[in-house]
């Protein structure tokens, strides 16, 4: 059981470092579209972490599984929020009737 916890912890720490390296190399202009496109991947991560959490037996395994579900959920919600804001930039702005009447005069 101790070996399993060490393996989980090693994978968890390695994914943190890989994630930081991948995100650090992305230019700022591409970050928002890539984040919105990765929502489906994070949905799969939530399902996978829930499966792992369901088979957890020790306290540390349950804590790491709960942290994985929580962080993946935050990532999905944040991705959808950013996508909504990004798509809102492309919506037509409402026309003010008073300004239109003043311009017509």
State the helicity in percent bands: over 70%
N-to-C span: 81 Å
Q: What general outline do the C-alpha atoms trace?
A: elongated
Q: How many helix segments? A: 5
Describe the sheet with the most strands: none
Please mark out the parts with pLDDT under 50 across 5 or more consecutive residues, or reply none: none
Along the chain, the helix and strand elements come as: HHHHH
Query: Whole-number radius of gyration?
Result: 21 Å
**Approximate strand percentage:** under 5%
Count every beta strand, where a strand is a DSSP E run of 2 or more residues: 0
User: Which secondary-structure class do the elements indicate?
Assistant: mainly alpha
Mean pLDDT across the residues is 81
How would you summarize this macromolecular structure in one to three sentences?
Helices cover 83% and strands 0% of the residues. The chain is built from five helices and no strands. The protein has helices at residues 2-24, 28-37, 39-54, 59-88, 97-104.
